[in-house]
Amino acid sequence: MKTNFGAMAAILLIAASALHAQQKPTVLRVGYFPNITHAQALVGRANGQFEKSLGAGVQVDWKAFNAGPSAIEALFANAIDLTYVGPNPTVAGYFRSQGAAVRVIAGAASGGASLVVRKDAGIQSASDFHGKKVATPQLGNTQDVALRSWMRANGLKSREKGGDVQVIPISNPDQLTLFLKGQIDAAWAPEPWAARLVHEGGGRIFLDERDLWPDHQFVITNIIVSPKFLKEHPDVVKNFLRTHVELTEWINKNPAQAKQIMNQQLQKETGKALPAEVLDEAFSRMQVTYDPIHSSLLKSTQQAFDEGFLGRTQPDLSSLYDLTLLNEVLSEKKARPVQ
Known about the structure:
five-stranded mixed β-sheet, alpha/beta, globular
């Protein structure tokens, strides 16, 4: 009996290739910012909890961003699959892709942003912002829209709209540098940067953004995912959300330990840990949550539309949310579902 060694070799090669394909891990590329408003990402990355819960079959690839629009661009470029991000870039990404690129699958944080002024800028009331320079993290990001909406409500206009307030979109670290040099008068910043502007920059909280919202609650961070990845890997997304919920609960029950872990991670990523008083103050102005606080996103969407960031037609957000997997996780934990 003759043996066809060529055929046998081909069969073995195909079998080996199939086995290799089965063993190749799924890669989940996760975006986040080195801000405490992304607390679950910082703590989870520091202790490897996402990697542990997702298992050996999933490789987590973390990617840090300065602000939301950059994360949305990465999602569009297929450079990430899922990201912690603010509501305004979320809606802008949904709008630009006609609903094809973005799904909100959970909340992450409420509060945690303030308008900070330099003590020697001569600002005591809204009218004192005439002729001033005010920074935000990035054009069209959540704080940028919040500032422009607040200005509109107080009879102020940016220079590009015929007013005399110069709005300067610039990264959070650069805001602190310009603040110290006296080259900007104020900044609408997320935590911990608002607290750093106070403690390191000699600033003063002019407005805690929570004061503008019902019950002092507004979404500053949610989790979004590519619908393609969600469809292809619902088990991975669900396990990620389970860990996110567990981290949310743990942080709320263990704030002192959570702040210590976050600070260690911030030092690792930014080269500088936060002084205890800065971290405590920053954390006091926010709340970690898995509730996306849908009502506040609708309001901030209206603000972004009014400021011209979302075209001429009111966006239809009917497909923006998919909370199915989050509510499955909450049901397993016998917790109240979110709407």
